[in-house]
Amino acid sequence: MEIVLAVFILMLLLLLAVPSLNGVLADRKLRRSLNSFDNLVHQAQERSVTERRSYLIVWGRDSVSVRPEAFAKGEEAKTTAELQLDRGEFLKLSLPAAFTKKHPAEWIFWPSGICEPATVQFQGSSGSWTATYSPLTGRPELTKYAAR
Prior knowledge:
- By secondary structure, this protein is α+β, with helices and mostly antiparallel strands.
- The protein has one helix at residues 2-51, and strands at residues 55-59, 63-68, 81-84, 90-94, 106-109, 118-124, 127-133, 140-147.
- The model has no long low-confidence stretch (mean pLDDT 91).
């Protein structure tokens, strides 16, 4: 009888721990998505300064990539870094200083390291986040973060 009671208590504790474990795993996955995108931003900013040319972060269907704004003569037109999005994940770009509401899905970093002000929203199975990026530093201010 004591063994059955001990097993029952152990099962009850495990059932209570599973939801919090799922929350921890979702938070970790959401943080990873934020860090991966932030790493992409830093690469674009760093390359624009070191190579003294403008770089773009370009939104594609299933990925976001970094590439030069213009390629030199004879230079192969390819991306320098890429962030693949998992199924059901998406990143949305908003440019508050853009002249038109329907702007291309491109975010520019000039040779000085300054970027266009931008707000990026992420949505996925692990949750969502929204970050507003400073034009002078390229650093994010997290305005929304919600893990599932």
